[in-house]
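Explain this one:

_____
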Amino acid sequence: MRLLVNWILSAIALLIVAYIVPGFYVSSFVAALISAAVIGIINATLGFFLKVVTFPLTIVTLGIFWIVVNALMLELASKLVSGFEIRSFGAAFIGAILLSIINMVFHWLRPKREEHRG
């Protein structure tokens, strides 16, 4: 259930970013759902590898390079999913920043699971 909620919230975040950022386009909620799933898969595989490999550069840039990696992952996902388009790297970069912020807000607003004490 938690995975489903995260997936739907990620799709909503994509739609919000598409509404705000020029050059960031999502055609429908279904395209946003598919895009969110593809972005999740890319970030869990290739994105994880790139973040490990580029960790020294990320340290030197105080974390800003991770935004570049996230923007590249968004661009890759836009090439794989019809109905999801990013027209420039600038749009991908700003979109990556906004997606991070929106997902952080969603995470903060989402009810926490009750911890069992035994």
User: Anything to note?
Assistant: Residues 12 and 87 are 20 Å apart (CA to CA). The helical segments are 2-20, 29-53, 55-60, 64-80, 89-109. Residues 29-53 form the longest helix (25 residues). Residues 2-109 form one domain.
